[in-house]
């Protein structure tokens, strides 16, 4: 026999169910901000209510290859970072970063080196009070910053070693600490992320931060959106096809601007989207030839492109086909590509909604200072997605 409930009891039950659904929605969706040494600033704490995780970037992987190490150099402390964010925000230490990969290669080499690395990481997490780590190995298997000096064939062994290193980290950190990994957004760089390796990787990580930015870089020869919708969908679909659950993937947002020098005649005669660039890197060394650049919203605008950037902000347009804000400056032969608040809004239904991903992240929070308008837009859209998820539940 089902007992009758009073109006008060029924109201309390409905309230409890509603709270539980709301908490489930929040737990299901992640909003992660990288907090960087380049721009270690944050908005007021009341604006950060939707941030669920913070990744302090970076600590060098080389620190963890020495047995028995006890000092952990970082530009700030976990305690100080916690004080800037709402109570309950998870704080991770991001290890690695672009170009800082030698320490990972040394760590992944064999069982002994993997164990030493993982034990030291666990010691660091315990000493700093962090909630976990973010592994920024860019990129296992090759195509990193040194790809012209060290051929991918010399790094092929890293493809199998990468999930082994993650497994050792999980064993040392235990089941309750967070392990995430920042992973490539371009399929040409996903050498270590295949149908054979992704299921092995996902056994050990809580989620992947898919770097759906820098999708145009100096290795490209034609213009495209560095953080566009179509290319972002290609990236997340590649991980899903390889075996990653969508709810374990976070979509990346870039709080910075990029520009590239173009070939004038070809861009003038046709669409500036997909038109040729000048050679952007040295074909022998891979070094930057100074024909492209980037800066965050918090950085001073470089004098040599300041006038062109003003035009990009005022006269740029949104590409409805590929999804991305851009401007081609015919006078300076410069291709500009970056996210506006409107472009950020469009990504939530087009990518988060369509693919039902587990969250978002941005590089980086302080990069959007002092106005934080891109972060505020992302936070507002994230709140909307929370409500949608709650309605679905």
What is the terminal-to-terminal distance?
A: 28 Å
CATH class label: Alpha Beta
**CATH architecture level-2 label:** Alpha-Beta Barrel
User: What is the number of strand segments?
Assistant: 13
| CATH fold naming | TIM Barrel
- Count of spatially separate domains: 1
Question: What global shape is seen?
Answer: globular
Unreliable stretches (pLDDT < 50, length at least 5) are 7-26
Structural class: alpha/beta
Radius of gyration based on Cα positions:
22 Å
Largest sheet: 8 strands, parallel, barrel
Short note summarizing the structure:
With 393 residues, the protein is an alpha/beta fold. Helix content is 35%, strand content 18%.
Description:
The chain is an alpha/beta fold. The protein has helices spanning 7-28, 78-83, 102-107, 111-128, 158-173, 198-202, 229-241, 264-269, 306-315, 341-355, 373-392, and strands at 30-36, 53-59, 90-96, 132-136, 178-183, 207-210, 249-254, 256-261, 292-296, 317-319, 324-329, 334-337, 359-363. It has one domain (20-255, 339-392): TIM Barrel (Alpha-Beta Barrel). It has an 8-stranded parallel beta barrel, surrounded by 5 helices. A 5-stranded antiparallel β-sheet has the order 9-8-12-11-10, with helices on one face. α4 crosses α5, α7 packs parallel to α10 and α10 runs parallel beside α11 (373-392). Residues 7-26 have low confidence and may be disordered. It is an enzyme of class 3 (hydrolase).
């Amino acid at each position: 026999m089902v007992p009758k409930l009073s109006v008060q009891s029924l109201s309390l039950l409905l309230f409890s169910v509603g709270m539980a659904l709301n908490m489930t929605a929040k737990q299901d969706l992640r909003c992660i901000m990288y907090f960087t040494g380049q721009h270690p600033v944050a908005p007021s704490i009341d604006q950060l209510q939707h941030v669920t995780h913070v990744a302090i970037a970076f600590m060098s992987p080389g620190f963890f290859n020495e047995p028995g190490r006890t000092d952990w150099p970082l530009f700030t402390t976990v305690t100080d970072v916690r004080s800037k964010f709402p109570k309950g925000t998870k704080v991770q230490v991001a290890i690695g970063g672009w170009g800082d990969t030698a320490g990972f290669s040394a760590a992944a080499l064999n069982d002994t080196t993997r164990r030493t690395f993982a034990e030291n990481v666990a010691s660091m997490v315990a000493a700093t009070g962090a909630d976990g780590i973010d592994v920024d190995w860019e990129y296992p298997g090759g195509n990193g910053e040194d790809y012209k000096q060290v051929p991918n064939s010399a790094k092929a062994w890293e493809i199998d070693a990468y999930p082994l290193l993650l497994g050792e980290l999980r064993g040392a950190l235990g089941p309750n600490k967070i392990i995430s990994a920042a992973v490539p957004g371009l399929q040409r760089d996903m050498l270590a992320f295949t149908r054979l390796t992704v299921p092995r990787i996902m056994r050990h990580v809580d989620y992947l931060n898919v770097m759906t930015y820098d999708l145009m870089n100096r290795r490209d020869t034609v213009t495209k959106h560095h953080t566009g919708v179509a290319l972002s969908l290609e990236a997340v679909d590649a991980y899903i096809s390889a075996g990653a659950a969508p709810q374990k993937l976070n979509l990346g947002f870039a709080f910075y601007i990029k520009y590239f020098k173009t070939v004038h005649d070809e861009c003038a005669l046709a669409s500036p989207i997909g038109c040729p660039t000048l050679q952007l890197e040295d074909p022998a060394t891979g070094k930057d030839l100074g024909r492209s650049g980037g800066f965050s919203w918090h950085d001073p605008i470089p004098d040599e492109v300041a006038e062109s950037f003003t035009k990009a902000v005022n006269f740029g347009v949104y590409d409805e086909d590929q999804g991305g804000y851009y401007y081609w400056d015919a006078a300076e032969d410069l291709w500009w590509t970056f996210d506006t608040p409107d472009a950020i809004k469009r990504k939530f239904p087009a990518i988060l909604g369509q693919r039902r991903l587990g969250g978002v992240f941005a590089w980086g929070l302080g990069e959007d200072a002092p106005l934080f308008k891109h972060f505020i837009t992302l936070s507002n859209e994230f709140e909307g997605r929370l409500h949608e998820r709650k309605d679905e539940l």
